[in-house]
Amino acid sequence: MILVTYRQGASASAPRIGFVDASHTTVTDLQERHTARTGQPSPHLNDMLSLIKGGEAALDLARSLQQGPADSAEVPLALVKLLSPVPVPEQIREFSVYEQHVRDAPIMSAKAKARFTGHPADPAMLDRPVPKIFFTQPAYYHCNRFNVIGPDEDVVWPTYSGHLDYELEIGAFIGRGGRNIRAADAGRHIFGYTIFNDISAREQMWREMDMRMGPSKGKSWDTANVIGPWIVTADEIPDVQALKVAVRINGQTRGSNTTANMLHSFEQMIEYISRDESLHPGEFFGSGTVGGCSGLEIDQWLQPGDLMELEVERIGTLRNRIAKPY
User: Fold this and answer.
1) Are residues 64 and 15 located together in one domain of the fold?
2) Where among 48, 82, 116 does a domain terminate?
């Protein structure tokens, strides 16, 4: 299924959840259809987190509502406003599992930071192999789950940044909780996949990384985490490491690659995170930037007004524009 959270009609209307048809032309309100057919609403269909937390029973219910003739619950997709499929995830964990990005981003950061500060680049950063730890365990940090926006919403340039960047990632929503989950079993815990644009304020990150505490304001301001345009359930994507991806800025391709060659799969991420720690339905994992799919890696930076389009095969395209600072 292709599942969305959206508003229909007035901008203040309550969010709904629905499914999108295979041609991406219509959306059907799951709760409205269920109520029309049964005479009562289902608690599983109140919002996307309710659907995710409802497990297989809730997803089977949603699938059953795909069947049957069209009705008033189905409307043209062009007439609704898509939101992030989960407007406030239970948790956001941001990984970095693509070797090309892990290798190239520090080198380009050192060069860009030297230009920004006027100081020579650190030679050790210009000839630095990928640290071995990246191969032995997944690297991650926590993002602000309250700063999420969806497709076609503006990313507002933070006032403290001069170098803003896009980062194309695959996102996975956790569908089943658990603890000490084996990688071999972890696929059953993935609800579905989406696209994540991890917006970065680069020079703020350069300052913060000197503190050896990881990024903070360089990755965290209102509108910094972009998720969408929808969730494609895991059964629709048999191999998440076999997808073509591309980034376009104002219609021009800035980067392309595939999702292959992850240092650690989503299943391995789940195994690692769940070691003596409970994993919960509704948590979100970002894969980290697919190699070559950030502006930093090619030394090309965003400008106010730029239209970003991040496309992932079998999922779709996530579009957002950069707006001027407040």
Assistant:
1) yes
2) 82
d(CA 27, CA 66) in angstroms, rounded, equals: 11
- What are the tens digits of pLDDT across the range 50-65? 999 999 999 999 999 9
pLDDT digits over 275-296, tens only? 999 999 999 999 999 999 999 9
CA distance 79 to 91: 30
Q: How many domains does the chain have?
A: 2
Q: Copy the structure tokens of residue 17.
A: 């959840």
Helices (H), 166-298: 183-186, 202-209, 266-273, 295-298
CATH code (residue 187): 3.90.850.10
Do the beta carbons of residue 194 and residue 173 sit within 8 Å? yes
Asked if residue 134 and residue 33 are part of one domain, the reply reads: no
Which parts of the chain are beta strand (E)?
2-8, 16-20, 26-29, 74-76, 80-82, 91-95, 140-142, 148-149, 155-156, 164-165, 168-174, 190-198, 200-201, 225-233, 244-249, 252-258, 283-286, 307-312, 316-323
- Show the domain range for 61: 2-82
